[in-house]
């Protein structure tokens, strides 16, 4: 009976994580789950876009801030972050990470990966995880998840989201190259 009580407490404790948006969900499903997104002017601090140039929405839900990127009305990338990190500086813990990855499995499995496909430097893929705690997972359908250094956010990209991010990075690089003066 005592084990059953602990199991119930564990499930209730992780339930907010299990109710998060899913890669592939529609904007309507996100609104039904969280309520309306915060208007861009009401967001306390501007953050770097997960995929530049695409529609982003920020929701607050049961102590979590969830930033979502939509393409054609569907979630292709998202970031989970506790609204108020623990005073000790700890971010997302192991149980919370496991709950999010389980909820985001979509019938697939997550396997730990050494690097994230959007990392361009072999050096950063080796040093950052070793020194700062960044961890990566790949889902069997091509989606990726990254627990950022210091575990303050968990970022997920669908296969389509990764392609959109690559295209945005290529466009940014092309623009940078075009801006170089021709002496």
Set out the fold topology.
Layout (H helix, E strand, L loop, with lengths): L1 H17 L8 H8 L20 E7 L2 E8 L2 E9 L11 H10 L6 E4 L8 H11 L2 E5 L4 E4 L6 E4 L1 H20 L5
Antiparallel strand pairs: 1-2, 2-3, 3-7, 4-5, 5-6, 6-7
Shape assignment: globular
Distance between the termini: 78 Å
* Biggest sheet statistics: 7 strands, antiparallel
Instruction: Report strand order across the widest sheet.
Output: 1-2-3-7-6-5-4
Mean pLDDT: 76
Please estimate the helix content.
25-40%
Question: Can you walk me through this structure?
Answer:
The protein has five helices and seven strands; from the N terminus they run H-H-E-E-E-H-E-H-E-E-E-H. The chain is an alpha+beta fold. Strands 1-2-3-7-6-5-4 form a seven-stranded antiparallel β-sheet. A hairpin with a 2-residue loop joins strand 2 and strand 3.
Concise summary:
Helix content is 36%, strand content 22%. With 183 residues, it is an alpha+beta fold.
What features would you highlight for this structure?
single chain; 183 residues; 7-stranded antiparallel beta sheet; 36% helix
């Amino acid at each position: 009976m005592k084990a059953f009580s602990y199991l119930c407490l564990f499930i209730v404790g992780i339930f907010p994580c299990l109710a998060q948006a899913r890669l592939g969900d529609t904007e309507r499903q996100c609104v039904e789950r969280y309520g309306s997104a915060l208007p861009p002017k009401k967001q306390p601090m501007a953050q770097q876009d997960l995929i530049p140039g695409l529609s982003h929405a920020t929701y607050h839900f049961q102590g979590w801030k969830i930033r979502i990127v939509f393409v054609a009305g569907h979630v292709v990338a998202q970031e989970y972050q506790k609204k108020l990190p623990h005073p000790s500086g700890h971010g997302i813990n192991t149980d919370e990470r496991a709950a999010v990855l389980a909820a985001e499995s979509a019938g697939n499995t997550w396997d730990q990966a050494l690097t994230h496909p959007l990392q361009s430097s072999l050096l950063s893929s080796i040093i950052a995880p070793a020194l700062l705690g960044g961890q990566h997972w790949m889902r069997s359908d091509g989606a990726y998840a990254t627990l950022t250094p210091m575990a303050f956010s968990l970022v997920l990209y669908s296969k389509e989201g990764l392609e959109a991010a690559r295209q945005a990075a290529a466009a940014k690089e092309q623009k940078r190259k075009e801006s170089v003066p021709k002496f």
